[in-house]
Amino acid sequence: MKTFLDYKRKQLKMKDASSIGYWDKRISKLCAKLNRNKNYYTTSSCAGRIVLIIADEKKKSGLFLFRSHEKINLQELKRELEKAKQTRKLIYFKQEPCILHVACKSLGDAQALLDRAKLAGWKNSGIMASGNRFVLEMRSTEKLEFPIINKGKILVDDNYLKLLVSEANKRLGRTWGKIEKMEKLI
User: Fold this and answer.
1) How far is C-alpha 44 from the chain's CA centre?
2) Cα separation, 156 vs 147, whole angstroms
3) I need a surface site. Which of 110, 121, 150, 172 has the fewest CB within 10 A?
4) Angle CA 172–30–126, to nearest 5
5) Measured distance CA(56)–CA(126) in Å, rounded
6) Residue 132: what pLDDT?
7) Domains and CATH numbers, the chain
8) Per-residue pLDDT for the chain (186 aa), expressed as one digit of tens each?
9) Rounded Cα–Cα distance for residues 25 and 46 (Å)
10) Best CA proximity match to 177, nearest among 110, 97, 72, 69
């Protein structure tokens, strides 16, 4: 029977399976800090991002038309929207918050980390249990999501795009602040 430590060793030896192939630099210190603790290991993470994605009910490769884990500017968004128009499909703009999955040795360990996550502002967080395994899903609340292109036509004007860039960047900044706060709390 495998132990928590066996699962942790296996997970930490695995090649990064994310679509970008490496940890987001803004969350890597938090992940490393958790992984050094004998009672935790991270299984997936994202420090927050801005994306243009083809609307599809099924998760599959090729849906992302643009992805940034950094703040963007209006010119960059307009350039990416022009490219995305060529698909002639329904395209969504998304600004997504930080998310982190942490395997925990015990329910008590998961609860202790959840309490810290809540203090750091990760309000959409909870513990998932399956058999003897406890995984804490830590998620922040900053999020924007709506259709922006349909059948090759951008659905909003430049004034709206300016507001959108400003708001998405503010929300990314807030989510990064929560990552830093969590680093200090553990």
Assistant:
1) 9
2) 10
3) 150
4) 75
5) 27
6) 78
7) 4-185 (3.30.1960.10)
8) 678 888 888 888 876 655 555 568 899 999 999 999 999 999 999 999 999 999 986 776 778 999 999 999 999 999 999 999 999 999 999 999 999 999 999 999 999 999 999 999 999 999 999 877 899 999 999 999 999 999 999 999 999 999 999 999 999 999 999 999 999 999
9) 9
10) 97
The β-bridge partners of 128 are 135
Query: What does the block give as tokens for 157?
Result: 């004007």
Amino acid identity for residue 54 in this structure: I
CA distances in angstroms from 68 to 20, 41, 118, 128, 169, listed in the order given: 10, 26, 26, 29, 11
Question: Helix (H, G, I), strand (E, B), or coil: what is residue 83?
Answer: helix
Is residue 107 helix, strand or coil?
helix
Tokens 């998961």 belong to: 110
Quote the pLDDT of residue 59: 72
| DSSP strand pairing (40-46 vs 99-104) | antiparallel
Diameter of the chain measured on Cα atoms: 60
C-alpha distances out from residue 7 to 38, 57, 150, Å:
12, 32, 45
Per-residue confidence (pLDDT) for residue 164, from 0 to 100: 97
